[in-house]
Structure formats: structure tokens, C-alpha cells
């Protein structure tokens, strides 16, 4: 059996994702720019939208964002009144939550992002395949959350 056949004919996931992610980013970037958000800020806001309050440490872990860089992003989002920070019961930690303005902006942006993602997915995938892809990707993304 040849080495190629043993390895399979499929490309590695990392190589495939490296081709897909820039395409998605190019579709989403104009929407985020218009909303005044960077991709990292949108990632942070998206994570905050899924929880009432989260510690900065947990937010750093969930977004895989370096705590120092996350702090800068949170400073900017706080200055724009999109997030609010407070001291946790453990005074060494701070908690973060979306403000109502942040939630409103998130919902508007999410709707537009979802539309371009759906167009992208449906350009090649059926409705069922696209839904399955989203579901499977969400499961893979959740693997790191519990660790």
C-alpha cells in the first residue's frame, strides 16, 4: 500500500481550515468594521452573549486570548459602553458582562454575520449539510471549554 493511500486522500483539517477561515473573515470583516468591532472584539462579545457574567480569567480561556491583550480589548469595549466590568467576590478577579448596548449591537451584527455565513455555506452545501457542519464544528469548539 502506498504512503499516500495509508495517510488517506483527504487533506489535513488544519490545511483545510487555513483555506476556509480567510474566506469567512473576508466576508465578515466589512460587517464588523461598520459596527466598529475588530474580529477579536466580536469574539469576546459573542462569548459574553452566551453568559450573564464571566470572570476575565474565564473569558481569556474561552476566547484563547492572552490576558494582557484581552484587557486592552475590554478597556476599549468598556470605553464604548459595550461591556461592563466589576470586582468579583474574589477581589483579585474582575467579572465582565455585556451591557444592553453591547447586547443590541451583538444581535444586529450576529444577524448580518449569520446571513453571509449561510450564503457561504449554501454556495456548496445543502441546508442539511450546512446545519450538520455548524453542529459538528460547535461540538469540536466546545472540547476546550471544559478543560
From TrEMBL:
Domain HTH marR-type: 10-142
One of the protein's GO biological processes: response to stress
Superkingdom, natural source: Bacteria
Listed GO MF terms: DNA-binding transcription factor activity
InterPro entries hit by this protein: HTH_MarR-typ (IPR000835), MarR/SlyA-like (IPR039422), WH-like_DNA-bd_sf (IPR036388), WH_DNA-bd_sf (IPR036390)
Protein name, per record: HTH marR-type domain-containing protein
Source organism (scientific name): Nocardia donostiensis
Amino acid at each position: 500500500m502506498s504512503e499516500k493511500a495509508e495517510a488517506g486522500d483527504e487533506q489535513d483539517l488544519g490545511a483545510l481550515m487555513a483555506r476556509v477561515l480567510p474566506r469567512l473573515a473576508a466576508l465578515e470583516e466589512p460587517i464588523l468594521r461598520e459596527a466598529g468591532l475588530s474580529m477579536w472584539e466580536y469574539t469576546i462579545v459573542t462569548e459574553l452573549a452566551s453568559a450573564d457574567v464571566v470572570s476575565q480569567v474565564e473569558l481569556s480561556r474561552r476566547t484563547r486570548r492572552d490576558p494582557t491583550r484581552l484587557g486592552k480589548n475590554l478597556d476599549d469595549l468598556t470605553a464604548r459602553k459595550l461591556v461592563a466590568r466589576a470586582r468579583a467576590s474574589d477581589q483579585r478577579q474582575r467579572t465582565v458582562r455585556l451591557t444592553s448596548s453591547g447586547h443590541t449591537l451583538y444581535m444586529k451584527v450576529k444577524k448580518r454575520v449569520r446571513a453571509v455565513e449561510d450564503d457561504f455555506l449554501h454556495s456548496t452545501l445543502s441546508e442539511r449539510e450546512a446545519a450538520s457542519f455548524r453542529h459538528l464544528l460547535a461540538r469540536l469548539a466546545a472540547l476546550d471549554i471544559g478543560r
